[in-house]
Design a protein that fits this description.
The protein contains 17 helices and no strands. It is an all-alpha fold. The relative contact order is 0.12.
Length: about 325
């Protein structure tokens, strides 16, 4: 009698087209593991990522707005969940592997720094090897999670995480779906947050975008998803040229009005100072690093260890560490 995993793998032959990746055809894990009786290999990847410490920390990492006043702004975690949901919708419609798609979507930003892209730029300037969050995301699942053991994810999940920003010629269809979904999510929720913050109004959105995508947040996402599904019915997974033009106009508009807006980004100058000071302290005092990172320092050098430690911090923890290191503690006279 087949166990639940075997039944699911048999169903995948009926549900997943030849463009998708069957779980039974995965290239496997770096360290061999026996198959689970209940879950396919990609389902196990979803669970490992969801239960990881780096995934939980995403709820306290900036998406775009630093320290926003209000509970409804996106964080790196809510962005990740939105990407995973959009990607699963597209993946199901195109008869791809939803579990692999979800695993890539949930893991794609695990390596993001505190303070969003401002933190990434700061670390890229500080770290002599440069810093890219997608490379760090792969390092998180391969090297940093589980006290240095890593999550031992499937090859397809790992490569989808690594290539989610720039893509690669040998990407799976599922990885391509996540890369497109990442863009769908952030251009739509970033404008939504900017309107909430009073930086923009709905009428400020370029007429071309409103005409082709729609007037409302949900309408724009629905329109783009349907465009990708229609444009990808056969062959390449893609957005139509018609919709790509609108998406590019949308991104350029956001770059000019939000991503480089002095009101929204005015605090970013402080980010380099905070992360730079923390970096200098631990580089000069490696004995103060947590034990896991001391081992990395021994194996790969102090800069690599400090980079891993600082990039994994949440916004609040980075501020706390900066304060505890450089600001005198209050004391009482008895």
């Amino acid at each position: 009698m087949q166990n639940p995993r075997e039944k699911r793998e048999a169903l995948e032959h009926l549900m997943i087209s030849e463009r998708g990746v069957l779980a039974e055809n995965s290239k496997g894990r770096a360290v061999f593991e026996e198959q689970d009786e209940v879950r396919t290999c990609f389902q196990r990847d979803v669970d490992r990522i969801t239960h990881s410490k780096s995934f939980r920390r995403l709820k306290h990492k900036t998406q775009v707005f630093l320290q926003p006043e209000g509970d409804h702004y996106r964080t790196r975690l809510t962005h990740t969940l939105e990407v995973a949901r959009i990607a699963r919708t597209i993946s199901r419609a195109l008869e791809l592997n939803e579990d692999l798609t979800e695993a890539i979507g949930l893991g794609h930003d695990l390596g993001h720094t505190p303070f969003g892209h401002a933190g990434e730029r700061a670390l890229c300037d500080i770290y002599s090897c440069g810093f890219k969050h997608y490379e760090q995301s792969l390092r998180v699942v391969d090297r940093l999670e589980k006290s240095g053991k890593g999550l031992n994810l499937c090859f397809e999940t790992r490569m989808g995480i690594l290539n989610h920003t720039i893509g690669a010629p040998d990407d799976t269809a599922e990885a391509t779906v996540v890369r497109l979904s990442d863009r769908i999510a952030y251009i739509n929720h970033d404008v939504d947050d900017a309107i909430r913050a009073g930086i923009l109004t709905a009428d400020d959105i370029p007429p071309l975008v409103r005409e082709r995508m729609g007037e409302r947040h949900s309408m724009r996402i629905d329109t783009i998803i349907k465009d990708i599904i229609d444009s990808s019915a056969e062959g390449e997974i893609k957005m139509s040229a018609y919709m790509t033009q609108a998406a590019n106009v949308f991104y350029d508009f956001l770059y000019d009005t939000v991503y480089s807006n002095p009101n929204a980004k005015g605090e970013e100058a402080k980010v380099s100072n905070i992360l730079g000071c923390i970096w200098d302290y631990y580089k000069k005092n490696p004995d103060k690093l947590p034990e896991d990172y001391k081992r990395i320092a021994d194996d790969e050098g102090i800069e690599r260890a400090v980079c891993d430690y600082v990039s994994g911090m949440t916004d609040d923890y980075a501020v706390f560490k900066f304060s505890s290191i450089y600001i005198p503690a209050a004391w009482q006279v008895k």
